[in-house]
Amino acid sequence: MAGRRRSDRKLRGKLRSPGRPPVARQEHRHRFWAFIAAGKTSEDAAMEVGVSQPVGTRWFRQAGGMAPSHLARSAKPPSGRYLSFAEREEIALLRVEGLGVRELARRVGRAPSTISRELRRNAATRGGELDYRATTAQWHAERVGRRPKAAKLATNPELRSYVQERLGGAVGVPGRAAVPGPAVSWKGRRHGRRQHRRWGLAWSPQQIAERLRIDYPNEGRMRISHEAIYQALYIQGRGALKRELTACLRTGRALRVPRARMQGRGKSFVTPEILISERPAEAEDRAVPGHWEGDLILGLNRSAIGTLVERTTRFTMLLHLPPMEGHGVGPRAKNGPALAGHGAEAVRDAITGTITTLPEQVRRSLTWDQGSEMAQHARLRVETGLAVYFCDPHSPWQRGSNENTNGLLRQYFPKGTDLSVHSADELAAVAAALNSRPRKTLGWRTPAEALDAALQSVQKGVATTA
């Protein structure tokens, strides 16, 4: 008995367990990070795998948004000499049937010695018996197979001090006291737009990594890659850099965002069949009037004015978008209605009320950017007869006439001013001023004259056809 393993001794007292098997198996985590790499959110990836959404969120945050190296897509799969989880499940099922070691080995396709060691080493012994369960066996195998390596920043104090000083040091004039800057509390997530950021030396991890080669040209131990610095910031438990230092990064992100998720971001209401590439050719060459371009110009306090420009005549119509009742009274409700006046419903009503004052012959299509204010474009098409198309992301030149007109409108509505103070009559007066201004592209005619000529030609064509 003295030479045998403790785990081989039956009917012994319960031993202290090193922990319990994780909530989900390693295969679940592999699939989870595969879905994350495909662009899914942590909640959606958790549902696909079959675990709860809080578990998926915890996995994502604990890893800093980065797949662990052994779970990444680039990681090599385990060698075939090791038992897989599927084989362990088969062993557990056959073991319940009462089969012996050699029969198990024959059916699984492994050596009898491999099966014998597996049943002894990775058995569930918490209750004093050699019970074999696939999940517990897989957990034992993964725990024994770990080869943890200490982070370089955790074992090299001088290197860690160098990185921390340049990443999160205080701003100040040499020889004088440091300037503290604004007090920014770290909340474990990205700081919002236009909010105060912590003042630091603002060196990026790549600048730090490359500068080490200049400051320490002959010391190999003072070398680290910028990726290792990012991992030390984002991944909990590395024991090197505090995650609060992510507030000093230029992005301010507390979690890394997978590239596929960024590429997959877009408006759900924009489908391939309504992109600008599907717009008729007659709209591109400006030969036929009735094709419009639209956008919003924004001001202070979330104020906005809508603009519509006809591509052929450059005729401009302005949309009055006053703030709705309750705007600015209390704190903004998360996922609440858009009270600023340029939500999807308000913009749809404004376009409908404005564009329907024109004859149907000059209401052919409308091209907009992929802003959420056009989420109700399908209903707009039904109400007005306008075929709505959307530009490609970050491509304002695809609405060149509208962008040019917005620049002209800034003479009347400068940036940084509250646009909600202007009434509908004032917007109509500004539109009339633009439409009565001679344009070089129209042969020095005004947009109003060009639209009037287009309407007359359309009416003559209708009369001739009749």
From TrEMBL:
Residues 276-455 form the Integrase catalytic domain. It holds the Pfam family HTH_38. GO terms for molecular function: DNA binding; transposase activity. GO terms for cellular component: cytosol. Residues 1-17 have a biased composition (Basic residues). Keywords: DNA recombination, DNA-binding, Transposition. It comes from the Bacteria. The keyword Iron does not apply. One of its GO terms (biological process) is DNA transposition. Coiled coil: none annotated. Residues 1-25 are annotated as: Disordered. The keyword Mitochondrion does not apply. Gene3D superfamilies: Ribonuclease H-like superfamily/Ribonuclease H (3.30.420.10). Required for the transposition of the insertion element. Belongs to the transposase IS30 family. NCBIfam families: transpos_IS30. This is IS30 family transposase. The lineage of its organism: Bacteria, Pseudomonadati, Pseudomonadota, Alphaproteobacteria, Acetobacterales.
